[in-house]
Write a structure and sequence with these properties.
This protein is of the alpha+beta class and about 800 residues long. The chain is built from 23 helices and 29 strands. Strands 3, 4, 5, 6, 7, 8, 9, 10, 11 and 12 form a ten-stranded mixed β-sheet that branches. It has a four-stranded antiparallel β-sheet with strand order 2-1-13-15. A three-stranded parallel β-sheet has the order 14-22-21. Strand 3 and strand 4 form a beta hairpin. Helix 16 packs across helix 20. The longest helix has 30 residues. It is elongated, with a radius of gyration of 39 Å.
């Protein structure tokens, strides 16, 4: 892995995408290293805020003695100020203070430039009692103005230009933005985009290094050397106070305060970070990659590949697209004592980097091979061994001493972004993946990355950039993201809150399949809630589904493959169940293809609990238990149950993996087979019968009315089981009458008899509001109870050989007994 990571960064160096630059980066004083955005979290923090005057030194005569006012939450960055940003889209004005308290910093007679929409808020914070607008001022005028630094005369004797910037708004502050190019991304970008014009105007465009890695001010911040912005313990230092005192002494403040707001912290140390200008290694986002890349940039390729990727849920595409569109160049260097080194060399005279475009293809290949081979054999630490530079460079350069060996290490997000290179592409390390051939390469395989939604800025992000920069395509075809696990109330789990649901405890109490079922049934696009009460629901769902599988296994123990019945010879009820199986095949396949596991669980739970256990199995128990072995009805039912078992077990295998395996091997014992070696493609597609489904939907509606009537009689203890009843079913609708006349309603309703009566039901008959024109009167069944089927019939005892059985059951016993 270390050798592969080194090879990957060397590819960026070889094509010139890797460069050394000086930019403001987020820096952890506590850890002594630059941080990536993915290593930062935002927490509440109390900052000092100041409103600072920058005296106008070049501009219209009417502005003599006036000052541009900025607002900042980082007073310590004032020594690094080199410009003021404004927006030509905002309305500005020149305002004169008419009245203010005598001891006020903002004095009567002061003239201030402010955004019109923010004047009231600024004057209130400065305790100004009255003011007036003297004139409006436009962007063209502002762009020609110059100000003095507020610490002019104390080592900051240079002009401050005003730059028009899109990042400026009039929502907070003053409408003018303090711009320190060494301490902020927006500040840096606007400063660099105006370099040519500033140089032409005679303004020094170099970016000062005002803060060192230990968080202390340098000699490039005159008057504040040694002052700490952040201490090595992560505490606020004395730099802010020193800068504020200096500004008060020069009469540069009009107000100060404190603000509690979200501020970046290192996710490791949990301490605040700072933006500081520091030499780092970057991968260029907007460097043209040449003819092979069709003159595209890394940003262009990545944005195109985002469109070529399937994002689940779909909102993930917009999220990562926005990040890639706006992100700056990729900072890949870290200053740590551990990690894979950025294994390049830099010429101390020319700044040339090798390997690189100017070094030549042959030398590049040799140098990369030497580094990769050494790392593969001995680990990346060989880079730091004495004599390593000469060993790598001998014979490739005239004098190794002319080259500086880079000792920074790679950001761990670059490491993670290379995982595709040392898994999907390394047949030696991962022989099982050697046969992967992706669709875009003419194959049929698709690669999915699956992680939490925070990885849009982490693993998904770095993997996309790494692969696009070295291969011109994303490393994945599908990216699936999920939320985070919370307790039942939606709160973050914490040991102190005693609301943690430990997977090991759930597994030991209920089995791993309960957890798997919960995950699959949850809406993973959002945060997932779990706890004892929620798990109880899934334990019950699991129990019912498992019981259905056990019942099918019990029934199929009597199934002989030679007894399989053709679809055309089956009763309607069996053909109906095959129709439902066909419908489910399409629905569940689509759900799996769309990663809608919640839909799979819901459909299978409804099918197995409602349509199978509570209807089909219930109806067919009599035929399965009591029909003769030669009965076509019985054989047809077993044929259908066999198909249902195969389908439901295969459909459940990715979710209830252990249960499905146990059931499969109980049905098909084997030392080498597994349900996980089969796919749903092996299932036969049963024929659809929509007309039959429509008919039986109405039959089941009538059955619901009968079942409701029977429940009332059972509650009144008029009957015990439903087999003691022979209901009269009144049907007023002619079409429905024809349907139920064609069906054995006693069999369907599990009663000993059923009489269909044409017309409206008598008063007092049971009915349901949603089944119009159907009423039921429950009568007790006549005859004797069959000792085998428990049905009440008039033919019990008709066969002397079996005096306690009905004729049907006696015939079955003759066949069984031979």
């Amino acid at each position: 892995a270390e050798a592969t990571i080194a090879r990957e960064i060397l590819k960026f160096a070889e094509t010139g995408q890797l460069y050394r630059g000086s930019k403001p980066v987020m820096w952890s004083v506590v850890e002594g290293t630059a941080l990536a955005e993915a290593e930062v979290e935002y927490e509440d923090y109390q900052s000092d805020t100041i409103w600072v005057k920058f005296p106008v030194v070049e501009g219209p005569d009417s502005l003599k003695g006036a000052s541009v006012v900025i607002w900042t939450t980082t007073p310590w960055t004032i020594p690094g100020n080199r410009a003021i940003s404004f927006s030509s889209r905002i309305g500005y004005g020149v305002y004169k203070i008419i009245e203010a308290p005598e001891e006020n910093w903002a004095k009567a007679g002061d003239t201030l430039l402010l955004a019109d929409n923010l004047v009231a808020a600024v004057m209130k914070s400065a305790k100004v009692e009255a003011y007036e607008k003297l004139e409006a001022i436009d962007g063209a005028t502002l762009s020609k103005m110059r100000c003095a630094h507020p610490l002019n005369g104390q080592g900051y004797d240079f002009d401050i230009p005003l730059l028009d910037g899109d990042h400026v708004t009039d929502e907070t502050g003053t409408g003018f933005v303090h711009t320190a190019p060494g301490h902020g991304v927006d500040d840096y970008n606007i400063w660099m985009s105006n370099q040519a014009a500033l140089n032409k105007a005679g303004i020094d465009t170099s970016i000062p290094f005002t803060v060192a890695g230990d968080g202390k001010m340098t000699d490039q911040a005159p008057g504040f050397e040694g002052r700490a912005v952040i201490t090595d313990k992560g505490k606020k230092g004395d730099a802010n106070g020193a800068v504020i005192d200096a500004l008060v002494a020069t009469n540069a403040l009009i107000s100060r305060g404190r603000l509690k707001h979200q501020y970046p912290h290192s996710w490791r140390s949990k301490k605040p970070v700072i933006f500081r200008n520091t030499p780092q290694w970057f991968i260029a986002m907007d460097k043209t990659l040449g003819a092979d890349g069709a003159n595209a940039t890394l940003r262009d390729i990545a944005l195109g590949e985002i469109k070529n990727t399937e994002w689940v849920p779909a909102a993930g595409e917009n999220r990562i697209n926005g990040m890639i569109e706006k992100r700056p160049d990729w900072v890949v260097s870290r200053q740590r004592a551990w990690g894979v080194p950025i294994s390049v060399f830099r010429n101390t005279e020319t700044d040339q980097i090798i390997p690189g475009p100017e070094f030549g293809a042959e030398k590049n290949a040799e140098l990369i091979n030497r580094i990769e081979t050494e790392f593969a054999e001995n680990g990346a630490d060989v880079w730091f061994e004495e004599g390593a530079k000469a060993r790598f460079l001998n014979g490739l350069v005239d004098s190794p001493d002319d080259w500086d060996q880079v000792r920074d290490v790679l950001d761990v997000w670059f490491d993670s972004g290379c995982t595709h290179a040392f898994t999907l592409e390394d047949a030696k390390a991962f022989p099982g993946l050697a046969g992967i051939k992706r669709r875009r390469d003419g194959g049929s395989d698709r690669v999915m990355y699956l992680e939490g939604s925070d990885q849009h800025r982490g693993w998904f992000h770095s993997s996309l950039l790494e692969s696009c920069g070295t291969r011109g395509q994303a490393p994945y075809d599908i990216v699936l993201t999920h939320g985070f696990v919370l307790d039942e109330k939606g709160l973050k789990m914490s040991k102190s809150q005693k609301n943690v649901t430990a997977p090991q405890e759930v597994i030991s109490q209920s089995g791993a399949d309960i957890l798997r079922l919960w995950v699959a049934a949850a809406d993973y696009s959002d945060d997932l809630r779990i706890g004892p009460e929620i798990l109880k629901t899934f334990v019950e769902t699991y129990r019912k589904m498992r019981n259905s599988m056990r019942w099918m296994l019990g029934a199929l123990a009597h199934f002989d493959e030679a007894d399989r019945v053709a679809v055309g010879d089956m009763p309607e009820l069996e053909r109906l169940m095959l129709h439902r199986l066909a419908e489910l095949t399409d629905e569940i396949t689509e759900d799996y293809l769309k990663y809608n596991y919640r839909g799979v669980v819901a459909k299978l739970a409804q099918f197995m609990n409602t349509e199978l256990s509570a209807f089909y199995f219930d109806v067919r128990k009599d035929a399965l238990y009591c029909d003769a072995p030669s009965s076509v009805r019985r054989k047809a039912a077993l044929t259908v149950i066999d198909e249902i078992f195969k389908a439901t077990t295969l459909w459940l295998a990715p979710i209830m993996s252990f249960t499905a395996e146990e059931a499969w091997l109980a049905r098909y014992p084997s030392d080498t087979d597994s349900v996980h070696l089969h796919t749903a493609d092996e299932l036969k597609t049963p024929p659809l019968a929509p007309e039959l489904a429509s008919k039986w939907e109405q039959v089941r509606n009538v059955r619901r009315v009968v079942t409701g009537a029977l429940e009332l009689e059972r509650a009144a203890k008029t009957i015990g089981s439903s087999l003691e009843a022979a209901p009269e079913i009144y049907v007023a609708d002619e079409a429905l009458l024809k349907i139920v006349h064609d069906v054995d309603m006693a069999e369907v309703c599990i009663t000993s008899g059923a009489k269909i009566v044409e017309g409206h039901a008598p008063e007092g008959a049971f009915s349901l509001n949603d089944v119009v024109g159907v009423g039921v009167v429950v009568d007790k069944a006549s005859g004797r109870k069959c000792a085998r089927s428990w049905r009440m019939t008039d033919d019990v005892g008709s066969d002397p050989a079996y005096p306690d059985l009905s004729k049907r059951d006696a015939e079955a016993m003759h066949e069984i007994d031979g």
